[in-house]
Amino acid sequence: MRVVLVNEGTYPYATGGVSTWCNQLVRGLSEVEWDLVAIVGTEPDRPAIPLPANVRSLRPVPVWGPPRPARGRPERAAGLLCRGMLGDTAADLVLFGEGLRALADVAVGRTRFGRPVGRHPLAGAGLADTLLDAWARARADGIRLPTLTLREADEAAVLLEHALRPLAAPIPEDAQLVHANANGLSSMVALVAKWRLGVPFLMTEHGVYLRERYLAAGAQSPGVKTALLRFHRALARLSYWEADLVAPVSGFNARWAVRHGADPAKLAVIGNGVDPAGFPLLAEEPADPVISWVGRIDPLKDLETLIRALAVVRRSIPAARLHLAGPVPAGNEPYAAECRAVAGSLGLADAVTWAGPCASSREAFAVGQVAALSSISEGMPYTVLEAMMCGRPTVSTDVGGVAEAVGDAGLVVPPRDPEAFAAACVAFLSAERFRREIGARGRERALAQYTLDRCVSAYRDRYQALTHTEALVSA
């Protein structure tokens, strides 16, 4: 079987999180031949993760690379796209889909001598003027939108043009399935393959892409922000509707998908999985009261709340410390500096260890008595499942599929609540018997419900059903 796996900003150029899932899937389904499409910011360096022999090709798609000249006149397509993304009805979504499909035709073009003709989808479209016209029409129709100036339209047009570049990503003509590991830009590649080649489209959502776009909305003006979020909303709704199967990692994500247009009959929740051999039980724990955290240093992980919670914990347990293990992605240096400043302002500079990346999260869990996750947005985080598999008790925020993953085998608290987080940590740090009881319960739950074999087998079955092939035989 030949499968195209599409992701944005992760595998194989980054490690951890979704990249872990991609690597597990590619290696676990060793009988599949993979073509990887990686949507990246700029032309990347070498992959950070070695690729196995069953990967046929790797094609990065830089959204901020140099544009390609377009052939044809995409003005009408851009008009449909803009009108559709600003509306609120099913008819508007149809317009958006027609515009995106037409832009995809311009971007991909016909093949010549077996090679796709790459085109810059919006070159010559006058997108800023088109956006202003659609904006005025939408406001005249009673749709509530903020004012959009010409300068704001120019700024939004540039950002939209770059966001649409995945439309030009070439897909192998012999692909049997396109698997997008998120909604949004990754799904655009799958949409084009479905429209042009009739290839089935499977979407996995680890986090809720649209929700994260709203959470990550920057400091743009109201007009620019509205244009971008309306685009992402329309794209997410269209992708949910067009996907042949939506496989969210949690029931939380599934409910979000249905709310935004996914057909419940085309949903199958497939949770993440952990290899028990890679995360054996941690039978011993350190003598000191240490809270371990593993992940990337990122605003969505809300380390400020975790650091503030440590200050509260130390009122009851003065020796408590925080061990943070994970990289600082490019662009997140200011956030890391803010977190260090918060620790300093609370007198915690010597109580927080910034350990940097670790080879395995198990190493970080071994340092602590408790594993923590303080995120404001998640799908089904590997760190929680891995901590459970290791037998460490977890304190997590109630976001995404965390609560359903943890069940009664950990403590779950509201996000952005340092007092509640601290209280849960104190409950574990002050009671060894309770820690060990919950840790053992977490390992039992992980072994019963969240193993890697179960996850990979579920995708193998879905691939077979979508492509109507004979049962895949694991190599």
In short:
The protein has helices spanning 18-28, 75-86, 90-108, 127-140, 150-163, 185-197, 209-215, 222-242, 251-259, 303-316, 333-345, 361-367, 382-390, 402-406, 418-429, 432-449, 452-467, and strands at residues 2-8, 33-40, 55-62, 111-112, 115-116, 177-180, 201-203, 245-246, 290-294, 321-325, 352-356, 370-373, 394-397, 411-413.
Structure description:
Strand 6, helix 6 and strand 7 form a beta-alpha-beta unit. The strands form 3 sheets. A 6-stranded parallel sheet has the order 3-2-1-6-7-8. The protein has a 6-stranded parallel sheet with strand order 11-10-9-12-13-14, sandwiched between helices. Strands 4-5 form a two-stranded antiparallel sheet. The protein has helices at 18-28, 75-86, 90-108, 127-140, 150-163, 185-197, 209-215, 222-242, 251-259, 303-316, 333-345, 361-367, 382-390, 402-406, 418-429, 432-449, 452-467; strands spanning 2-8, 33-40, 55-62, 111-112, 115-116, 177-180, 201-203, 245-246, 290-294, 321-325, 352-356, 370-373, 394-397, 411-413. The model is unreliable at 110-118 (pLDDT under 50). The two termini are 13 Å apart. The relative contact order is 0.11. Helix 4 (127-140) packs across helix 5 (150-163) and helix 7 (209-215) packs antiparallel against helix 8 (222-242). It has 475 residues and is of the alpha/beta class.
